[in-house]
Each structure stands twice: as structure tokens, then as C-alpha cells.
Known about the structure:
Elements: H1 2-29, H2 35-60, H3 65-101, E1 106-109, E2 113-125, E3 130-148, E4 159-161, E5 168-172, E6 175-176, E7 181-189, H4 195-206
Antiparallel strand pairs: 1-2, 2-3, 3-7, 4-5, 5-7, 6-7
Helix pairs in contact: 3-4
Amino acid sequence: MLALNGLRVNVIRYRIRFFGMQGVKMLFSKKLLKTSAFLSLFVFFSALMVQAKDAAHNLAEGDNPKLDEVSLQTDRKTADSTTQKDWSSYTKLVEGLVREFYPKAKIKLSSTHLHVEFKSRPYDIPSLNKIEPGVDWGGILFDMDLKDGQYSGVHAVPKKFNEYSYYHVMLYAPYSAKLNKHLETRIVYPFDVPPDFLKRLVSLVENFDQHF
């Protein structure tokens, strides 16, 4: 209120200096000098000051969207880097198991995919009316894909497909809540697959997040 009184005095002085007493009378005749008008102005400017103060506080507290986005990107890069290191370590375990039973198998590795094949060739699948890779006796074929979120495919997993006459096909997609990722794995194996190999491979698939 002191500030408002000072403002009123300055306005009156201004009017007297440039317009004389007639200017003062004109000033007091204006509705702007009524108490309600001054109170409205006071509330309006007070609200602006509070908003400005809150904005400055938010910036100081780290609520700046740009700063948060930079922080999120840094966190994502750190998490991705850690996942890549764990994926590399995990695939080395799988590769070691493959080399133990199939020393001549072909292994292809990328940042989220692992492909293994030995004695694999195209097969005509009449029940599916298509040709796709399969395995001969003594062979192995499987693909692993590390994907975000839960599996959203059409199949209920794990699933064993019955459309194949010369070998078995299994689909797995275990989900890790810790990583928020799933490991989609399709294994094609002949009837003479070493039981110990298959058991250990399936265990590595179903418990993959224990190695991350």
C-alpha cells in the first residue's frame, strides 16, 4: 500500500507540474483512483511477480525441460552401454556352449541379434506352403533377438510347432522386468540333438536376465 500511495503522490505531482490544479481535479475524477481499481492493479502485478519467482525457482530446481531431456538422454546412453556389455558377455556364454557341441557352426552376432547355424538348408514345408531354412541330422539352427518390452507376437510362448516333419521348431520369448526386454528365440533342431545341449541352451534362454 505504501508503494501505491507513493505512486498516487507522483501522479498528482506530475499533474500539478504540467496541468496545474485543474489537472489534479481531472485526476481525482478518474475511476482509476478508486480503491477497487488500485486493488485490482495491485493483485494483478503481485500475481505476475509470483509467477516470475516460481519460474526462476523451477529453473534452479532442474525443471527446465531441455535440461531434463539432456539428463534422460544421458541415462539412456548409460543404460544402453551397460546392456551392450551384458549382451556381449551373454552371447559369449551361448557361443561357448555352441562350440562345445558344434565346433564348425557359423555364428553371426550384432548389437541385439545372434544367429547360429550348422548343417542348415532350405526345406519345403507343405503344411505352410512355403520354403524356409531347416536342419539336417546333426545340425542346429537358432536366432536370438533382444527386444524392448514384452513379447507381443501372435503365438503363446513358449511354443512347439507341429507343422514340421523332419525336425523340431520351438519359440521362446522370456521377459525381464528388470531390463524391460524380452529375448525372442527360435530354435530349430533335429531329432538327434544332444539332450544336454538343448537343455542348457533352453536354460540360457529362459534365464537370460540373470546374466545382465
